[in-house]
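Journal club prep, shared notes

We agreed each person brings one worked example of a sequence with its structure written out as tokens. Mine is MBOA4 acyltransferase. I'm keeping it raw so we can talk through how to read the token line rather than staring at a rendered picture. Sequence first:
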Amino acid sequence: MCWADLLVLPATPYWLVAFSFAALFRHLCALGCLSLTARYKFLLAGGCLLAGTTMGSYAVLLLIPATSSVLVLLSVSPARAHAWVFALQMSWQTLCHLGLSSQELDSQDARPAVTLSAIMLLTQKTTSLALDIHEGLVPLQQGQGVLQRALPLCSYLLFFPALLGGPLCSFSRFRAQVESSGALPSALRAAGQRCLCALALQGLRVGLAGRLAGRQGCTGLGCLPHAWVRALLLRLAYYWHWVLDEALLEVAGFGPEAGQGDLSVHDLWTLETTHRLAVFARTWNKSTSRWLRRLIFQRCPAQPLLATFAFSAWWHGLRPGQVFGFLCWAVMVEADYRIHPFLSIRATSQGMKLLYRGTTWVFTQLIVAYILVAVETESFSMLCLLWTSCNSILPLSYGLTLLLLAKKLKQN
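Then the structure, token by token:
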């Protein structure tokens, strides 16, 4: 069972309640029954209730860093806000990852996985908010009581529609959406379309899973299509998760701006048809990609690409499969930047262009499958089996090509 299944399937009853709670919130806002302060309290109370019901006692692991981050933001100067919040949140998240992974937990208990996912999303929001304050995009209100200043921040970090899923929205957009009240029918229509899309994705995934279950084992090069189908099932699970996340946000009135969500029809088409691994990396989980670009890539003076993927491995938990998978992804993207310019200028005729795009699309699909399977690998022994299988042929070829092209460029 993949990470997306662990997050959604056990929490499905609570998600149904969350959808009803979101519709109630939007309806009360549209009727003008809730003041601005009451809206913040409603969202915060819903988040605490959802955390308690889905995570149980593990919810404390989420509430502690959320409260601590708010206290830090209200206490330190804007110039130091980001450094303090980043150190606090990543230290706490790393301790939670290491602590929960070292314990012998019930494999059927999804609460630790749900808690870790919520803490990772909290890291996105706290660091994004701290950067906004550091850069002067969000001035903190002065002359108000501590509770009045803390309420919007706590509500942003824990509001229930985004507690268990993304996409990430800025604090400025969150505050603007809380202050406004749109028409409920349009939100329900958009949410309904996303739910139908999620139903179609789940139906496709169930059908593919049934076909894969009928094929036991593989040998040699026959493992390549087997790994591709397995990775496709993983991608469909994540697509399903992201569509449901955005549907819940739509119902509550916090739908992302056009092009700012994690998955649109255009994004889905791009992910499944692109022949460029770099394009896939930018489109996959778009709000997280933008967050990583802002947090690491744009602020790293040396090797920003490698630093971004290394930090992503740290953020995801530093399991062997995650470290290997994300570092491999960084090398593959760097190779992609060098290989495609080299090949595209040599594809002059229409037939050569079709051959170039078709071949590189297959290569991209197989490499993405290899990376996803590696990231989802739990144990070091399974990772060694993946490394010694035929699935490693293409990643090794890309890595070797990167070395050759880099050496040729250096000689020139």
